[in-house]
Design brief:
Layout lengths: L3 E10 L2 E11 L4 E5 L6 H9 L6 E6 L2 E5 L4 E2 L7 E5 L10 H10 L6 E3 L5 E3 L12 H14 L15 H13 L5 E5 L7 H18 L2 E6 L2 H7 L2 E6 L2 E6 L1 H6 L4 H6 L6 E9 L5 E5 L3 E7 L5 H14 L37 E6 L4 E3 L5 E10 L3 E8 L2 E8 L9 E6 L4 E5 L5 E10 L1 H6 L1
Parallel strand pairs: 3-11, 3-12, 7-10, 10-11
Antiparallel strand pairs: 1-2, 1-4, 4-5, 5-6, 8-9, 12-13, 14-15, 14-17, 15-16, 16-24, 17-23, 18-22, 19-20, 19-22, 20-21, 23-24
Helix pairs in contact: 2-3, 2-4, 3-4
This protein binds adenosine-5'-triphosphate.
The site of adenosine-5'-triphosphate (ATP) has 12 residues, from strand 2 and helix 1.
Length: 450
């Protein structure tokens, strides 16, 4: 049982802000993944919550009790926070059996009110006073049996780590971390040493482990697939700054900005620049991909003008963090990729409120016989279950996913339409999501006829 709250937590080294004014609530029994590109501050965040790194400023509480508070001068050491760690290098003792590896930390526990249930679960009486006690051999064995059952390594208890596969060793490391009954389990890329197949298997086991232990899990990864499949909530960070904190499907379907949209999803989202404005009926008529016309209809009623006004007043209202030292690693607007055949990037100067970016997930680009979009196959990558198709439309490259056993030839002429109501409309000026909706493309000939 643990609810973690971070308020305005900053960690900087000189003028380098590794974590910048982070506020976050990790609910009890959540499985939160800290996700972002290399060097964005994921590990530093995890280490600060765990007590392995001291924040520069801010406050962290676990179950309402402050474990760090820069103003009150509180900094509870890691070994007093009752948390467990699991890292990439799980370093088991090679000269000890699996049983001894798991039991190792249990022998060092010394607390008043400590006991072990018949089922092998560690119990702590928070009100217990008096002399601290250690666990007996029988109690330790009961705990070892319980945790080894959870991670399915009972048959290997008398083996040495060198006699186990990588996945089995990792399970021993998990059992060892679970044994003392941590209220929070911190994991830093714990599966990255495993091969792809084993990683998939271990992911599923970690999910079941989370379900069966009821602990709070905080998990660092740069692998968006891992973050998506494991988490109850993803905390996506860039340059030390929180970008979005939401459930995985919200992050995928309603990314708050172009950075989030681009980081999550494989194959990546298509960005299409559009220029135009909102009509009286609320729809947006935009010119896109050189000579196509697109009509975007929002799923909810929205006024672009009001949206911009809200953005401006929000920006003015957001209190800029009080910085004693200027941020060297300055925040810049994310340069979303518009993929073209020549790799050419479009100029982003002189943007007006009539400049938009449309985000189309590959599964919304449907190849069909009578679609309004014309293109030719640039490349096709079948995996068996689906084929990722890169399609050239004029000078632009769009990515689509086609399910089923269809084969595509390079250069093949195809037609497409954009389907679904999950198309994202971003402002090009600040990269923020305006709304989601549908996109109807019109072929240039259709425009001429009309
Ligand atoms: P990765 O996925 O590569 O592990 P990360 O998101 O976990 O990256 P962190 O380890 O949290 O990144 O580091 C965040 C930034 O802080 C990095 O740019 C790193 O170089 C910097 N940093 C970390 N530790 C120190 C230190 N002791 N002194 C100075 N800078 C540091």
């Amino acid at each position: 049982m643990a609810r973690i709250e971070l308020s305005h937590v900053t960690k900087r080294w000189g003028g380098f802000y590794a974590v910048d004014d982070l506020s976050l609530v990790i609910e009890d029994n959540a499985f939160v993944t800290l996700l972002g590109p290399s060097g964005c501050g994921k590990t530093t965040t995890l280490r600060m919550i765990a007590g392995l790194e001291t924040p520069t400023t801010g406050r962290i509480t676990i179950d309402g009790v402050p474990v760090f508070d820069s103003e009150a001068g509180i900094n509870v050491p890691a070994n007093k926070r009752r948390v467990g760690f699991l890292f990439q290098n799980y370093a088991l003792w090679p000269n000890m059996t699996v049983r001894k590896n798991i039991a190792f930390g249990l022998g060092n526990l010394r607390e008043a009110g400590l006991s072990v249930s018949e089922e092998g679960e560690i119990r702590r009486d928070p009100l217990a006073k008096g002399q601290a006690r250690k666990l007996t051999k029988e109690e330790i064995e009961r705990v070892v049996q319980r945790v080894s059952e959870i991670v399915k390594i009972q048959p290997f208890l008398d083996r040495y780590p060198g006699e186990l596969s990588g996945g089995q060793q990792q399970r021993v490391a998990i059992a060892r971390t679970l044994a003392p009954g941590p209220r929070v389990l911190f994991m830093d890329e714990p599966l990255s040493n495993l091969d792809a197949k084993l990683r998939l298997e271990m992911r599923s086991e970690l999910q079941r482990l989370h379900h069966s232990t009821g602990s709070t899990f905080v998990y660092v990864t740069h692998d968006q697939m891992e973050a998506m499949t494991l988490a109850t909530r993803i905390c996506l960070i860039s340059n030390g700054v929180l970008q979005q904190y939401d459930e995985p499907l919200t992050i995928y379907g309603k990314p708050e900005n172009t950075f989030v949209a681009d980081f999550v999803g494989n194959p990546a989202i298509n960005f299409i620049n559009g220029h135009g404005h909102q009509g009286e009926d609320g729809s947006f008529t935009l010119s896109v991909l050189d000579h196509y016309e697109a009509v975007f209809v929002s799923s909810r009623k929205i006024s672009a003008q009001e949206w911009y006004q809200e953005q401006e007043s929000r920006e003015a209202a957001v209190q800029k963090p009080d910085r004693p030292v200027a941020k060297e690693n300055e925040d810049t607007l994310f340069q979303y990729p518009v993929r073209t055949v020549t790799g050419r990037e479009e100029s982003r100067d002189c943007l007006s409120p009539d400049d938009w970016v449309i985000g189309v997930r590959p599964e919304f680009l449907s190849i069909c016989e009578d679609g309004p979009l014309e293109g030719e196959v640039f490349s096709a990558m079948p995996t068996g279950m689906e084929t990722t198709v890169r399609i050239r439309v004029g000078n632009y490259l769009l990515t689509g996913v086609s399910f089923g056993k269809v084969t595509y030839q390079i250069g093949q002429k195809i037609r497409m339409e954009i389907t679904g109501d999950g198309i994202c409309l971003f402002s090009r000026r600040n990269g923020c999501l305006v709304t989601t909706g549908t996109l109807h493309m019109r072929h240039p000939d259709e425009n001429d006829a009309g």
